Amino acid sequence: QEEAVEEEPPEPKTAAEQVMRPAFIPTSQKVAPKTSLHVYSAPGEEEKEIGKRLRAMRAEETVPLRVHFRNLAWREFEIPKKTTGDELCMIVAKHLELERHVANFRVFESIEKKEKELPGNRPVIRAKNRWAPFEDEEGHDVTEAFCMIIVAPMNGAPQNFQMLYRKHTYNCRRYKLNEWKMPDIVGAVKQKLM
User: Whole-prediction pTM value?
Assistant: First the structure.
């Protein structure tokens, strides 16, 4: 009986064959095997590929965003981190069954009752991340009472659309909206809100 002897693969002879070899990864840094065989053309490309996958996964992460309406009813939406103002308008229009009027929606940022329109091509989360935290006298976070994202008709929107918007946002049961209630805020913070 002859024993099967494993032969080591021959050393690459040309520079092109050397480049086609996969990069060496120490055992502590090995990742799960891929479903298909990849041949990397240069050392370090595997790390780049893994980095691309991680960036794509982070981009797809969703975050909760509380969206208010003009009557201060609100709904929390799970949106991807990179959702722009125009995309948020589409999400809200679809939820309110007003898709054909999406061009009349705008996103506004309200901080201490001062509103400004947000650009439609920038991520909405960026504006939310800039909000300064508000605390009551006991140290509880009450930022939601002072800072909000509002999706509402643009200035100069057609009257019939404004009436539809009002009708749909006041119908809280049908569209699963939460009615806004004054948070239980103590002392000076409560007076500041009034």
Answer: 0.61
